[in-house]
Amino acid sequence: MNPQPDYRIYPSLLDKFNDYSIDLACRVYITKVNLRDFMQVKNTLNLQILDLMQEEGCEFAFPTTTVDLPERKGGCGRQRQQRLPQRGKLSPQATDEG
User: What is the pLDDT at residue 16?
Assistant: First the structure.
């Protein structure tokens, strides 16, 4: 990533391995104080990180949660099942069907 006049990037490091993620620590000094400009710089940096990951062939799998709803008396008499994605889903092809 190339630093811009609006921000300075410090060395990043592997922070820790979580149950569902590999956490990176990125420190950036952003000179914008206006919230709109700050959010725009933050978005640009996040998209650059995503582009780098995709260029390197990294794939992201996100866990899903299955919610089984019990039968209701007087209801339709069948059990419904719904798969809910965990937060942070980046791409539709990177899902865990297990």
Answer: 92
